[in-house]
Design brief:
The strands form 2 sheets. Strands 1, 2, 3, 4, 5, 6, 7, 8 and 18 form a 9-stranded antiparallel β-sheet that branches. Strands 9, 10, 11, 12, 13, 14, 15, 16 and 17 form a 9-stranded mixed β-sheet that branches. Strand 9, helix 4 and strand 10 form a beta-alpha-beta unit. The protein folds into 2 domains: 147 residues, 2-Layer Sandwich (D-amino Acid Aminotransferase, Chain A, domain 1), CATH 3.30.470.10; 163 residues, D-amino Acid Aminotransferase, subunit A, domain 2 (D-amino Acid Aminotransferase, Chain A, domain 2). The protein is globular, with a radius of gyration of 20 Å. With 342 residues, the chain is α+β, with helices and mostly antiparallel strands. The protein is built from 6 helices and 18 strands. It binds pyridoxal-5'-phosphate and 2-OXO-4-methylpentanoic acid.
């Protein structure tokens, strides 16, 4: 990408080559110290477990500039922890927190010119991932692993930015199995979502929200974010389930809702039978930030929320603004959620 002609506020959520990425290898029981490379292609064995048996995990994070130009990460050690938990579930070598943080910091610093300016709505998206590599054929865990951190400047995940989106409530396909790998940030969960997502997009929806794989009675999450609901009585809830991702954004919003706004936000199963009580619905995640959901369609019936789905609701807007303000240090970081890259 050409930095001289880049219009930061017009970036979409797509891959752009930047000069450096961080690579570390695990072999014979240990990680090497890792290295920065300009090579964005990877050469691996044709029998690698990531290619056949889905031994692949990833994370999603952002580096953002504060008003004073500092570069900030939001709760990166939570990503490091979830990455290790995902690795454990897929029987992969765990990346220690120090190596994870080193990869993030080095990849961001090496590409510092690509961290978008404050106030543009753009950020430097960070994509750590890990794959099982090395010669293999049978179903087993790999004997070698590659840990990569690449970064790329992005704009909003949903093109229109902070505008209501439509969700199809998926009544047939599941994203993850009960007791499966839904809690891990593993590629397999996303491949399972591609077909239902394509179908939903062809039908005119922006995204899919899945139901619990056991009974199809409770909301789970979308293909790329958690969700939350604001009820007509002013309370909030966000689904609790062991087949969804333990979203860092969602957990932050629960804290913000409770402590900054005195709102009661519960983490509990939220049933389809509660749909008529929703005043607002939102999607939340690193890429999605907080995205208002204008309406849900379940079995062909449309349920619209605030302003008939035409505008973001007041609580969703409040949560969105507070989250952004916290992430770029526009308000004091009393919780110690920010880490500066120096
Ligand atoms: N759920 C899914 C399926 C996701 O891909 C993401 C994105 O990371 C999230 C939820 C949100 O998680 P976080 O807030 O930690 O980014
Ligand atoms: C993220 O929010 O970081 C994600 O990983 C979601 C998506 C782009 C897969």
């Amino acid at each position: 990408m050409d930095l001289k002609t880049t219009e930061w506020s017009k970036l979409d959520f797509s891959y752009r080559y930047v000069p450096y990425r961080f690579h570390a290898h695990w072999k014979d029981g240990a990680w090497d110290e890792g290295i920065l490379t300009t090579e964005n292609k990877i050469s691996i064995d044709e029998g690698a477990t990531c290619l056949h048996y889905g031994q692949q995990i990833f994370e999603g994070m952002k580096a953002q500039r504060a008003r004073d130009g500092r570069i900030l990460l939001f709760r990166p050690r939570e990503n490091a922890k979830r990455f290790r938990e995902s690795a454990r579930r897929l029987l992969m070598a765990e990346v220690p927190e120090e190596l994870f943080m080193k990869g993030i910091v080095e990849a961001v610093k090496a590409n510092i010119d690509y961290v978008p300016p404050y106030g543009t709505g753009a950020s430097l998206y960070i994509r750590p991932f890990q794959i099982g590599i090395g010669e293999n054929l049978g179903v087993r865990a790999a004997y070698e692993y590659l840990f990569v951190v690449f970064v790329t400047p992005v704009g909003p995940y949903f093109k229109a930015g902070f505008k209501p989106i439509s969700l199809k409530v998926e009544s047939f396909y599941d994203r993850a199995a009960s007791h499966g790998i839904g809690q891990a940030k593993a590629g397999g969960n996303y491949s399972a979502s591609l077909f239902p997502l394509k179908k939903a997009k062809d039908e005119g929806f922006n995204e899919v929200v899945y139901l619990d794989p056991k009974e199809h009675k409770y909301f789970e999450e979308t293909g790329a974010s958690n969700v939350f609901f604001v009820f007509k009585n002013g309370s909030l809830a966000t689904p609790k389930s062991d087949s969804i991702l333990y979203s860092i954004t969602r957990r932050s919003l629960v804290d913000v809702a409770r402590l900054d706004f005195g709102l009661n936000m519960e983490e509990r199963p939220v049933g389809l039978d509660e749909i008529d009580n929703f005043a607002e619905v939102g999607a939340c995640g690193t890429a999605a930030v907080v995205t208002p959901v204008g309406w849900l369609t379940y079995l062909g019936k449309k349920y619209s929320f605030y302003a008939d789905g035409k505008e973001p609701g007041p609580i969703t807007t409040k949560l969105y603004k507070q989250l952004i303000a916290l992430q770029v240090a526009d308000i004091p970081d009393k919780r110690g959620w920010l880490e500066e890259i120096k």
